[in-house]
Amino acid sequence: MTSRPYHDDYWDERELWSRDQLAEYQLGALKQQLAYVGSRSDLYRQRFAEVGFEPGDLRSLEDLTTLPVTRKGEYVDAIERVPPFGPGVACDPRDVRRVHFSSGTTSQPTPMCWSQRDLDRWADLYARSAYSQGVRDTDIYQCLFSFSWFVGGLGGTLSYQRIGATCIPGGSVDAQRQIDTLFRYGTTCVGGTPSFMLHLAEVAQELGRDLRDSQVRRIMVGGEPGAGIPATRQRIEELWDAECRDGYGSLEFQPIAWECHRGAGGHLAEDFAYAEVLDPETLDPVPDGQRGVLVLTHLDKEACPLVRWWTGDVVVRDSSPCECGRTHARLPGGVLGRADDMLIVKGVNVFPSAVEDVLRRSPGTTGEFQIVLDDEVRDPTTGFLSGLKMRVEFRDDAPEGAADQLSANLRNELKVRAAVLPLTPGTLPRTTHKASRLSEEGSA
Ligand SMILES: [Zn+2]
Fold first, then answer.
1. Cα 189 to averaged position of ligand 1 atoms, centre (Å)
2. Are strands 96-101 and 273-278 parallel, antiparallel or unpaired?
3. Of 5, 60, 204, 333, which has the most beta carbons under 10 Å away?
4. Residue 233, pLDDT score
């Protein structure tokens, strides 16, 4: 199905609603949605009853905070009690049109269901995102997201089709054929994971071809944080000579946010999901500009609606208008980290990735380190950290006082006190996969 845009520059007039209009719409939609969810979803009927919440109680958007957040673990447990789809399916099971699954790296793959209306909504929202990046019906889109199990392949293809672009569902395998295809058929835009974009550029070089000579000028990446990391984005843009924009979504929410052509942080789809940004410890809302965990509530999902879904993703929200004219709030820098990885040291949020960044810029280290979370720095009653304790490998030729220098740099840049225990090179365990930087053991 092809749809017509609302305006030459905007896919949907809702993108231009004032903040007041948006809030009014959200409240109306939430009232309706919670009434639907409370009567049709066994999962939420029970959760609402546990806290004595009646959907009719919702008078303002703030009233939503009287409901508990829904965490992934709770959702997975509920599915195990009522397999295979769980008690969260709110529509008639005959109306479920499609099921996608989580990648299941840490647990059994979790299913998520869509009705026909949900699928149409999804395609339309992604069409909105691609359109805001400059994609038009004259484009040729090669979808390089995986089609097997992963949500990206079908989602990407159907949305660009909706704009009227010519779509080539390539998938994320067979790099050489993807490259041949994009040169032969004059592909103008692609979508895929940042790592596959980098992989294709590498393979092209091995084949003696240069992707900068292709017609591709727009890239939408997703599925991994990559595009939010400036160095990765820049690398992709250089290798392809194309504009790279981030599309952020999850199995549970498709989409969450995407960048417009301005690339100033992904726009939330605020007429699709009501977004809260919460302090990970107190669960109180944090103001714009402050880090917190993104929590989302579907406003019109039919098949598997979620209420106050804890994404675990740490973001900063900016509700000021974007230069593109769209009013929906943005997430500058994309996903800044996972709440599970975040340490709170005397009220200061510290990510191991930020520690690593400082450490790699300090002289004399091998780059290997471990953050030790033991009773010396952790209050056993509250669990709060009073400072950082770190084991750090230093090279044999490290300058004198390198450990003190690192400690001072951490204090200056991250505002935390850090005790640095120097180690000789090769002391800490190496992993080929993502390194674990946290250790609960006693001191070295
Ligand atoms: Zn914008």
1. 19
2. unpaired
3. 204
4. 86
Same domain, 324 and 394: no
pLDDT-derived band at 443, boundaries 50, 70, 90: very low
Identify whether residues 27 and 167 lie together within a single domain: yes
Ligand 1 centroid from CA 10, angstroms? 11
Distances (CA, A) of 336 to 207, 262, 317, 428: 36, 19, 11, 27
| Cα 23 to middle of ligand 1, angstroms | 19
Buried/exposed code over 76-103 (b: 16+ C-beta within 10 A; e: otherwise): eebbeeeeebbbbbbbeeebbeeebebe
pLDDT-based confidence at residue 441 (cuts at 50, 70, 90): low
CB 339 within 8 A of CB 314: yes
Classify residue 195 by burial, with Cβ atoms within 10 Å: 0-12, 13-18, 19+. Answer: middle
Domain co-membership, 331 together with 378 = no
**Alpha carbon of 129 to ligand 1 centroid (Å):** 10
Roughly what angle, to the nearest 10 degrees, separates helices 352-361 and 402-414? 130
Query: Do 332 and 378 have their domain in common?
Result: no
Q: How far is the CA of 323 from the centre of ligand 1 (A)?
A: 6
Contact 139, 187 (CB under 8 A): no
420: tokens are 């640095």
Q: For the chain, what is the mean pLDDT?
A: 91
- Between the alpha carbon of residue 340 and those of residues 96, 100, 310, 324, 369, the distances in Å are 33, 25, 11, 34, 19
Q: Is 412 exposed, middle or buried (0-12, 13-18, 19+ CB in 10 A)?
A: exposed
Q: How far is the CA of 93 from the centre of ligand 1 (A)?
A: 38
